[in-house]
């Protein structure tokens, strides 16, 4: 199965500009599930790597014609980096892009940042405004739910500090200095999805959010957590559908991804051509603080030993597609599990490809041969959305219009 990038494939670079974090989330797949990579890379990305990342973006425009390039500033916690150091890095990135790209190409590069919100200051907001950086902030629900797992290094809850940061961001958005922040919520299997949805939307004012399943695969599978996460998502879906029926416009990425799959849009990731060639319409590249190119974090506890040697200073985005290690991951994600044979949703769900991470199909000694651990949740989501769309008269385009897709990951 040959892989290539489509002529206008979009590129998403998740740049770990700061590998350390000021809180200690119990579910974090960077620090608390066996991933040790953060111990061997610099805490902050040095300037030479920053310049290489900028040139990596420009090289992509030389190699093909990306419809969009998204540079997601990630961590750890990016705002642990002093604001003046971050400013120097953004100035360097901007200078390289301005020198090497045409105005049209430059307009297709967007910046976003994912933060826990506890370190937001006016100095940081000035930088977000200066570089038109979209913001995603992680809030896992009401204070008791959020603080159950998102604690600082002394075990104290982080909710109040997160809300203080959110209020600064919301004020800046109301004043027109930055775009309205998006919200990210990692599902707590013991919490109420409806109550969490209400808190995020009605109490905190988010109109663009995403729910992430806690990462599990078939080797660390906990049935009660899978069932709890499924209940959470379907409860949140119920509140979203009721809000939609009442005229409320809230974009929830996992719901819109499901709608895209149901209506044949998929995730815009690939299409098959004659001869079993796969053309990728979107490529996600993870760049560590030292410039190393790696697979996404949820794969690392079982998979990181298989990757090495690719670097933004020496390799281009097109090289990643041709690298057999990364190619194997793409092929695994696009290969349907034999467990799914006969399922009426197979052409929509594609063994979890439409909604989940390929790591959620991992099983020891079988790699990614199984269906997603969240198969039941996906089935319930598709069924719920199908019922809503048939009864409400709301068009899928109406729901997708205006969605901002800058919220990435916890």
TrEMBL record:
Q: Does the keyword Iron-sulfur apply?
A: yes
**Per UniProt, what is one Pfam family of this protein?**
Radical_SAM
Q: Which cofactor does it need?
A: [4Fe-4S] cluster
Q: Does the keyword S-adenosyl-L-methionine apply?
A: yes
Q: Which GO terms describe its molecular function?
A: iron-sulfur cluster binding; metal ion binding; oxidoreductase activity
Instruction: Please state every residue range assigned to the domain named Radical SAM core.
Output: 7-244
Which InterPro entries does this chain map to? Aldolase_TIM, rSAM, rSAM_sf, Sulphatase_maturase_rSAM
Keywords attached to this entry: Iron, Iron-sulfur, Metal-binding, S-adenosyl-L-methionine
Please state the span of the N-terminal signal peptide per the UniProt entry: none
Q: What is this protein called?
A: Radical SAM core domain-containing protein
